[in-house]
Design goal:
This protein has five helices and five strands, in the order αααβαββββα. It is of the alpha+beta class. Helix 2 packs antiparallel against helix 3.
C-alpha cells in the first residue's frame, strides 16, 4: 500500500480530496507520470502531422496516433484526479453501509485494514511480475448519507493511475449500496 502519512480523515471528507503529507517520492512520481503522458501526446501529435493519407502504409498511423493521444489524455486525467474523492449516495444507515462495504471486501478477497468510524482501506494485491508485493487500495470514507472513495495504486518504479477498474468498482459499490 502507498504510504499516506498523516492522512487527515475529517479534512479529506470536508474537501472531498485526500489530505496527507506527500513525500518527495510521491511528488516525483506525479511529475514523472505527467511527463510521460505529455511526451507521448507530443510525439503522437508530431507523428500525426507527418502522415500522408495517400500512402497506404500511413493509414494505420492515422488511426493509431489519435488513439494513443486519447489514451494518454485519459491517463493524465486519471492521475490528476486520483486524490479526488468520488461520492456515492445511499439511503440506508451508515453502519449498514459500512457492513456492506466490509462484506464486499471479503467477497472479493481484499485485505481489509484501517477500519475506523469513518474510513476503511480495501487492499488488493497486484501481480505485476516482480518479486515485491504491490497493492491497489480502495479508500472508503463514510459520511452520514454517502461514501466518498478513491482508488490508488502503487508500483515498483511508477505509481501509474488506476485506469479502468475504477469504473467497475464504482458500479459495484453503487449497486451494493442501493440494494434494500
Amino acid at each position: 500500500m502507498r504510504m499516506l502519512r498523516n492522512l487527515d480523515i475529517n479534512k479529506s471528507i470536508e474537501s472531498r480530496k485526500l489530505i496527507f503529507e506527500e513525500n518527495w517520492s510521491d511528488k516525483f512520481d506525479n511529475f514523472t507520470n505527467y511527463l510521460i503522458f505529455i511526451a507521448l501526446i507530443n510525439s503522437s501529435v508530431l507523428c500525426l502531422k507527418e502522415i500522408n493519407l495517400l500512402s497506404s502504409n500511413d493509414r494505420v498511423g492515422y488511426y493509431l496516433f489519435p488513439l494513443v493521444i486519447v489514451f494518454c489524455l485519459y491517463g493524465f486525467y486519471c492521475k490528476f484526479s486520483e486524490k479526488h474523492l468520488k461520492e456515492i449516495k445511499f439511503y440506508i444507515h451508515k453502519e449498514e453501509a459500512k457492513q456492506k462495504i466490509l462484506e464486499y471486501g471479503k467477497k472479493y478477497n481484499y485485505r481489509i485494514s484501517k477500519i475506523s468510524d469513518n474510513l476503511v482501506f480495501l487492499n488488493e494485491s497486484i501481480n505485476n511480475f516482480s518479486s515485491r508485493n504491490h497493492e491497489k487500495t480502495i479508500l472508503v470514507f463514510f459520511k452520514s448519507d454517502s461514501i466518498l472513495y478513491t482508488i490508488i495504486k502503487e508500483g515498483y518504479r511508477l505509481n501509474a493511475p488506476v485506469l479502468f477498474s475504477q469504473h467497475f468498482t464504482r458500479r459495484d459499490l453503487k449497486k451494493m449500496l442501493q440494494k434494500k
